[in-house]
Amino acid sequence: MVDDLVNTYLLMEADVKTLEDISAFSKRLQLLDGEVLIHENETENFDLYVICSGAVEILSSSSTAVSSDVAISKQNRDIFGEISWITRKRRTATVRCRGEVEAIRIDGEKFMSYLSAHPQTGFLVMRRIAGLLCERMASTDQLLKQILWNSPF
Predict the structure, then answer these.
(1) Is the dihedral of CA 99, 58, 8, 49 positive or negative?
(2) What is the pTM for the complete model shown?
């Protein structure tokens, strides 16, 4: 599992000891087409997920603009579940497997505790999460401009 974690954007700068520590509260998942990892509006599960192979689709029914259609697709080495993990608020979308998926579930509570006890790793992870959210915000901004102004990317 260490080899999979080191190849993720979130943990690629972490040392082997840190990856081994995180592996202790992580679990490899083998999932089938159509299986749901996260349910929109869920409030009990704040785990993070890393896709090792395969793809998932992100769906939302909380907006009439989306209407349960696929909003985003994620593939190898992507992470998801970070918004609820950070905010401890309800899940904002449903995550469903598209084909067979191998993923890693990182226990959100234990991960947060670990990062609190290891501030250097906590800073690394939070900096990575901030970068990821900035990238997603920039993509959303670009898409919104295209929609509003009907112009190409």
Answers:
(1) negative
(2) 0.81
